[in-house]
TrEMBL record, chains A, B:
A Pfam family reported for this protein in Swiss-Prot or TrEMBL: Glycos_transf_3
Protein name: Thymidine phosphorylase
Molecular-function GO terms, alphabetical: 1,4-alpha-oligoglucan phosphorylase activity; pentosyltransferase activity
Species name: candidate division WS6 bacterium RIFOXYC1_FULL_33_10
GO biological process terms on file: pyrimidine nucleobase metabolic process
Amino acid sequence: MHSEDADDLGVKEGEVLLLGFKDVELYVKVIITDSELTQGEVGLYEELTQEYHIPEGRKILLDIPAPTKSLEAIRKKISGHRLNEEELLSIMEDIGSRRLKETEVAFFVATFFSPGFDDDEITWMTKGMAQSGEILDFKYIKDNKGLVVDKHSIGGTAGKGITPTLVPILAAAGLVVPNTSTRAITSPAGTTDILESVMPVALTKEEVYKVVEKTGACMIWGGSLYLAPADDEIISVERSLRIQEFQKVLVSIVAKKIAMGSTFVLIDLPYGKGTKLEKPDDLEFLSREFEKLFHRFGIKCVTHKRIVRGPDGNGVGPLLEMKECLKVLERDEKRSEELEDVVIEMAAKIFENNGKAKKGMGKKVTLDLLD
Amino acid sequence: MHSEDADDLGVKEGEVLLLGFKDVELYVKVIITDSELTQGEVGLYEELTQEYHIPEGRKILLDIPAPTKSLEAIRKKISGHRLNEEELLSIMEDIGSRRLKETEVAFFVATFFSPGFDDDEITWMTKGMAQSGEILDFKYIKDNKGLVVDKHSIGGTAGKGITPTLVPILAAAGLVVPNTSTRAITSPAGTTDILESVMPVALTKEEVYKVVEKTGACMIWGGSLYLAPADDEIISVERSLRIQEFQKVLVSIVAKKIAMGSTFVLIDLPYGKGTKLEKPDDLEFLSREFEKLFHRFGIKCVTHKRIVRGPDGNGVGPLLEMKECLKVLERDEKRSEELEDVVIEMAAKIFENNGKAKKGMGKKVTLDLLD
């Protein structure tokens, strides 16, 4: 089978498929190639074609067996039972490789709302989600004691200009900051959309390594890197719901950061009317859960809670928001003080937590870098 | 628009769609025909084609607006809130007319398992499900005081031979019994499959009326009658789960009986290891819920609880099971006593509850009819 077809169908080398031709039914083992066949073609060993009289150039049927283990686990969860590690890993693997139907993914997504998952289940799911795709490693870049820093916001209406302002400041202090962002999930435009107004954001893995080696940082779209693909599948199914359960937000973000090889993550938690966090209890809950879940994967997490009353900065729309970022970095007189303040506070926190500034000196270090 | 296309898309006459052609965007009202157009074609009034320069034979885009009310209601339910009548009716209508995506239906199905629905919600949902399709009326047939009788089993492994044996007995006593059955949902073959071994089961509405007027009864496949189509859509989505929540079973059966215009229904509740009812509590719960829900629609319901230890009768497989039924009716010496006993008990219950036999005399009346 051609590798592109195998990818599309979520079929792996060595897997057993049911082959049908007229009244012949055979179980066959998949071998993947991209030189011997073109897309849409399937090759069979000569013994097979002769023994079963399958002439060349004919259509055959290939049936991919349903992933019973993961489907069984979804059934178990929807009936209110707890899942074990093996079950959650198999669900994530089968979602990531698109072996589960969209409706089956929807049944799984529904269980986030009720009955929900306990800490262990969340950990296993996060692990499985991260393992469903590429895992990158930037620890060897620069003599940084293996430190790989990132910042992530839970999103909502506010804060899309922060990343493009903050990341260059962190890199200027010598930190390694491979940052990925998303396009809009529940709002009309995401950080990726803003960045794309001035630079390419869909890089290959090789390009990402090159950029980070050269500059210490990158700001790219996570979607082109095959990071935690199970998450992308889930997002595409849950999009029409237009609401994300908090545990789902948590798993999503932590899995992507594991896949990017982060060792320190600042989580931006904007709260207030119109954001994703309208209730103080939700804010405290999510803050605690992020720290706990990151910790389970050996990643240090610091949360940054800030109240917002509207979009940060003076600009709205990708290009205007990008201009606001540049104004802060270029020390423009008309820069947004609000955006600058948020960025300085975050940079200070990151510096103080990673040996780049002493306690209480983070803001000064940041301002020195800016001026 | 051609009627077949409209059916496929779930579009109704008079509905407003968004038409796109190049940079033209228009809201257009749907008129359905099956004479002026062939399938896949769409016709536009000449005023439109001239004013907006849309040449003949070109592809246009038709966007069907998302059913926001029902989707909003599904979101509300999945977040744990109670729904009102209007919301449940709109969900059922939009599922029945296929305006909701399969994943959205899956989100709704998941809420049966958790958080579940209260009595009012179940009633409104049942009403909406029945109203999503045709509603038949057999009250005028025979001078029967508007009595329309039916029997339904919740299914599982046992009891598929009961209906083909019982219905003719009921009809022989002068009852009106328009019975519909299903093909397999969670088991490999259903009552419909057995009946189909000896007679046509996919009748049109007109044919059904004709058969019932002539014989007093029918035994047909419900699937060809557009009865409660919302249920069929839900069943197709939940099939891969291979489990049905009890509330779902309840709503499904009651909605179909409302659509068939039943006024008295005997619900067969087989219980025991290997059936859908393994726990005594489930049996009592379902029995109570059936009586309650039918009552809310003015339908009298009597449940028939019976323990089973395997398939009824001696035959397994459509043709053998059909032969077993005929043996009982023909008083064959080698008939299955087990099947006969069950059928006689049910017939007795139905006769005693509908003035065809005095209390305690139902079995005698049934035996007299058989011999």
